């Protein structure tokens, strides 16, 4: 792209629409420097590292003293760590849909987890961040778990990714499931659009994904690229290579986290070695909170309420660390709340990608937050399988009456315990989640005007979802 065209694009701000609101990209947002240490003069690379079921408390820099995560901790020292980052949903499929499209999954009719029996997936008229970056001459790749539909028309190569290595849905959706709801087929491994093997060894998957990621970075070092590494761990069944098994001294789950941390380190070292670090935005996060029913094979919610499958903080508040030396201030801890919905519009902004046409987004460009600034943010809705169960607006979180999942007996060593999907029951409640992380102090009776205002916003989005 020539210099004059880049200058023109930098002057354009695109609009982001959500629930009847229109918000323009901030024209004062800093555009990432075009020249990194590698000497390249094109747009920045983007790497998104997404773990599966890693809880808010599952890293040393998130105050877990039982897990060894030196690379994530160092990444936080070299970049920014968010304390209030939300996954787009509390389970895998809708969360990934939100991250890749910047839209609530209900707009895509992907409100629930898909599996090997599902006949639907991401619609043809929905665009992923990879679609738009591919149009901007980016090399695009996904390594790991897709989980947005397994038929040919729903797979990654049809949605912006030129390279795919991984599995179409969760690693536990296979014939070795310990308590299957139905008989599963053999779990396929894809190389682009071809199945190359079945039932991969779970112990080797993190290493294999890491090797492919490193290879991709080295191969595309001289052109802009977008790489999405969607790890299959620490979702059950837990798997870890021989080089990390038993190494943590804290059990299998800690071993798995240690290997994931190693993987992050290998990717960051490759960026350093190739001179791409200053020209690469790396974002690390998780798709939802820990699956608590698996007991010692589940992660930690970091003292938050509940976990995966719920819209309490433990279900959707997850780790998020970002690094881009020279652009993101080192050693920053941000209490600014943002969500996975914001990742796509932010990436479009920093890569100077201006789609000619796009669906209205629910997320917004939050690059200023990545620079450590406090920013105004539109409300975030916690949606669970087509129902809007809560809203975050400023420091307030309003929860509307609903039943929710509880764990009545934790599992052990890979076997699930007992959970009741509608075993919990909560009434209309208002929490100050900046102070009340455990969501135990309902103050709805003290602030009736706030309750009314937030209730109307929930009703507005619910009506939209009901009519999709």
Topology summary:
Elements: H1 3-10, E1 15-18, E2 21-24, E3 45-51, H2 70-78, E4 80-86, H3 92-101, H4 129-135, E5 139-145, E6 163-167, E7 188-191, E8 194-198, H5 205-219, E9 225-230, H6 252-274, E10 280-286, H7 313-316, E11 317-323, E12 332-334, E13 338-339, H8 343-350, H9 367-370, E14 380-384, E15 387-393, E16 396-399, E17 402-409, E18 418-426, E19 429-432, H10 448-466
Parallel strand pairs: 3-9, 3-10, 4-12, 4-13, 5-6, 5-9
Antiparallel strand pairs: 1-2, 4-11, 6-7, 7-8, 10-11, 14-15, 15-16, 16-19, 17-18
Percent helix among the residues? Answer: 10-25%
Biggest sheet character:
11 strands, mixed
| Class based on secondary structure composition and strand pairing | alpha/beta
Mean pLDDT: 92
Q: Estimate the strand proportion.
A: 15-25%
Number of strands: 19
The backbone outline, from C-alpha atoms, is: globular
Question: Separation of termini?
Answer: 39 Å
Number of H/I helices: 10
Rg computed from alpha carbons, rounded to a whole number of angstroms = 21 Å
Topology pattern, helix = H, strand = E: HEEEHEHHEEEEHEHEHEEEHHEEEEEEH
Show unreliable segments: 1-41
Verbal overview:
The protein is an alpha/beta fold. Helices cover 23% and strands 22% of the residues. The protein contains ten helices and 19 strands. It has helices at 3-10, 70-78, 92-101, 129-135, 205-219, 252-274, 313-316, 343-350, 367-370, 448-466, and strands at 15-18, 21-24, 45-51, 80-86, 139-145, 163-167, 188-191, 194-198, 225-230, 280-286, 317-323, 332-334, 338-339, 380-384, 387-393, 396-399, 402-409, 418-426, 429-432. Strands 3, 4, 5, 6, 7, 8, 9, 10, 11, 12 and 13 form an eleven-stranded mixed β-sheet that branches. β15 and β16 form a beta hairpin. The protein is globular and about 60 Å long. 52% of the residues are buried. Residues 1-41 have low confidence and may be disordered.
């Amino acid at each position: 792209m020539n210099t004059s065209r880049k200058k023109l694009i930098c002057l354009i701000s695109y609009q982001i629409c959500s629930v009847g609101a229109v918000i323009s990209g901030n024209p004062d947002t800093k555009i990432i420097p075009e020249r990194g240490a590698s000497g390249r003069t094109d747009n920045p690379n983007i790497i998104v590292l997404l773990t599966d079921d890693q809880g808010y408390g599952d890293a040393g820099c998130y105050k877990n003293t039982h897990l060894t995560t030196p690379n994530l901790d160092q990444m936080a020292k070299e970049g920014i760590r968010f304390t209030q980052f939300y996954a787009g949903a509390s389970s895998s499929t809708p969360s990934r849909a939100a991250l890749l499209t910047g839209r609530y999954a209900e707009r895509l009719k992907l409100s629930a987890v898909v599996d090997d029996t599902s006949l639907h997936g991401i619609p043809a008229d929905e665009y992923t961040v990879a679609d738009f970056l591919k149009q901007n001459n980016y090399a695009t790749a996904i390594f790991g778990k897709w989980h947005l539909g397994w038929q040919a028309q729903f797979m990654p190569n049809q949605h912006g990714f030129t390279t795919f290595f991984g599995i179409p849905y969760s690693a536990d959706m296979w014939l070795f499931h310990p308590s299957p709801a139905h008989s599963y087929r053999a779990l396929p491994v894809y190389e682009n659009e071809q199945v190359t093997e079945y039932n991969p060894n779970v112990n080797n998957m993190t290493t294999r994904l890491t090797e492919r990621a490193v290879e991709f970075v080295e191969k595309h070092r001289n052109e802009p690229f977008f790489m999405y590494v969607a790890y299959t761990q620490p979702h059950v069944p837990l798997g870890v290579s021989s080089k990390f098994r038993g190494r943590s001294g804290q059990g299998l789950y800690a071993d798995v986290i240690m290997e994931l941390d190693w993987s992050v380190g290998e990717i960051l070292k490759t960026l350093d070695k190739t001179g791409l670090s200053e020209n690469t935005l790396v974002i690390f996060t998780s798709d939802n909170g820990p699956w608590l029913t698996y007991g010692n094979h589940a992660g930690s919610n970091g003292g938050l309420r509940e976990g995966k499958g719920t819209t309490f903080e433990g279900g959707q508040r997850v780790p998020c660390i970002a690094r881009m030396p020279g652009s993101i201030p080192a050693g920053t801890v941000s209490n600014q709340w943002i969500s996975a919905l914001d990742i796509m519009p932010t990436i479009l902004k920093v890569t100077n990608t201006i789609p000619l046409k796009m669906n209205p987004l629910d997320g917004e460009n939050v690059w200023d937050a990545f620079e450590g600034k406090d920013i105004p943010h539109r409300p975030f809705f916690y949606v669970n399988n087509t129902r809007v169960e809560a809203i975050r607006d400023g420091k307030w979180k309003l929860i509307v009456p609903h039943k929710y999942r509880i764990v009545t007996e934790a599992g052990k060593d890979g076997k699930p315990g007992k959970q009741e999907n509608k075993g919990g029951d909560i009434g209309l409640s208002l929490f100050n989640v900046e102070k009340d992380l455990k969501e135990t102090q309902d103050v709805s009776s003290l602030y009736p005007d706030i309750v009314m205002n937030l209730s109307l916003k929930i009703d507005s989005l619910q009506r939209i979802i009901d009519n999709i």
